[in-house]
Amino acid sequence: MMRIAVLDDWQGVARSSADWSPLIARAEVQFFDVPFASEDAAARALADFDIVLATRERTPFPRSLVTRLPRLKMFGLTGSRAAKIDIAGMIERGVTVCYTDGGPGVHSTAELTLALMLAAVRRIPQSDAAVRAGRFQLGTTGGFVLAGKTIGLLGLGRIGAQMATYCNALGMRVVAWSPNLTDERARAAGATRVGKDELLATSDVVSLHLVLSDRTRGVLGAPEFARMKRGAVLVNTARGPLVDETALIDAVQSGHIVAALDVYDHEPLRADHPLIRSPNTVLTPHLGYSVVEVYAEFYAHCVENALAFLDGKPIRVLEQVVA
Predict the structure, then answer these.
(1) d(Cα 184, Cα 169) in Å, to the nearest integer?
(2) Is 239 a catalytic residue?
(3) I need a labelling partner for 20 at 20 to 30 A (CA). Which of 61, 75, 78, 200 fits?
(4) Dihedral (CA of 163, 168, 170, 175) sign
(5) What percent of the chain has pLDDT over 70?
(6) Which of 318, 320, 322, 316 is nearest to 301 (CA)?
(7) Would you say the CATH fold of 105-283 matches that of 3-103+291-310?
């Protein structure tokens, strides 16, 4: 009997998000709800599985791990792109790689971006902690009004454009930059295209919405943080490695910026990480797509993809890496 591993169920939602019974009737299905401690641990746990159904950006699957999974015949990916997974290497080895649709992931991620921005600007986590500690307003600080302020969007794809809509509704000035952005595309999204340096220097909030690639990795580092206004807010719901983490830690610990983050270089974020100990941060555990509507689509498609593979008629197959 085929063995199927359902990985990365860190929130314990996989079983309730889809009907797994047709798949369980035909294969041995095991759910993993705790992150692997290391690549070696992942290799040991998954060596005897034929199918792996993973959630993107949680367990990394570099080539060094893939080569240690001799029985792997099918790999299921939620969504269609994942920088931490060696999709090309799997395809080269003859592994069938299947994807899922993303459900309302654009809206869920844009809404979380908005929430993080508001939480950082109005100091909501600190205020919540003060109330729970019995201090009420004592020790809290004032935030600032967003109406009339400038938000700079680094990336103006579907999520960035949705964020532009929200910020226009708040009465903010919306500027945007990306390597290939045109004036026409910016105007269509309700933004003004500016240079990257101008965006950083004039924005009260900077929000990242770029795809992670060799060209965009580390797009924000020490020189970029130095250009930002003191007290500006950086929001990142895209990918952690878009930002030089060492420079980010220096910028928040010095009080130069506030960082509202949903993504990190290495996930889960370890308990002693400097960002956790930094007061100028608002942190969420990569929740951008983590809503019930998205999970329902992710896991329903995972089941469909695995059943189709067992029938010898795979669907939603990635023939090449999505850029």
Answers:
(1) 20
(2) yes
(3) 61
(4) positive
(5) 99
(6) 316
(7) yes
Catalytic pick among 239, 297, 301, 304: 239
Do residues 61 and 83 make contact, with C-beta atoms less than 8 angstroms apart? no
Query: What pTM, to 2 d.p., does this model score?
Result: 0.94
Distance CA(30)–CA(302), nearest Å, equals: 14
pLDDT at 323 over 80: no
Residue pair 234/206 in contact by the 8 Å Cβ criterion = yes
SS3 content of the chain, % helix, strand, coil (to 5): 35, 15, 45
pLDDT band at 322 (very low <50, low <70, confident <90, very high): low
Catalytic residue status for 286:
yes
Orientation angle between helical segments 105-121 and 158-169, nearest 10 degrees: 50
Residues 201, 206, 210, 216: is their CA dihedral positive or negative?
positive
pLDDT tens sequence across 214-261: 999 999 999 999 999 999 999 999 999 999 999 999 999 999 999 999
- Range 3-103+291-310: architecture per CATH: 3-Layer(aba) Sandwich (3.40)
Tell me, yes or no, if 319 is annotated catalytic.
Answer: no
Superfamily of domain 105-283: NAD(P)-binding Rossmann-like Domain (3.40.50.720)
Q: What are phi and psi of 4, to 5 degrees?
A: -120, 130
Nearest to 266 by CA among 296, 286, 290: 286
> Looking at the predicted structure, is the pLDDT value of residue 207 above 80?
yes
Catalytic residue among 58, 209, 286, 301: 286
- Model pLDDT, residue 319: 86
- Taking the domains of the chain in order of start, what are their residue ranges? 3-103+291-310, 105-283
Strand partners, 32: none
* Helical segments of 3-86, H only: 14-17, 21-24, 39-46, 63-66
User: What is the C-alpha separation between 122 and 143, in angstroms, rounded?
Assistant: 4
Instruction: For 95-138, write each residue's pLDDT tens digit.
Output: 999 999 999 999 999 999 999 999 999 999 999 999 999 999 99
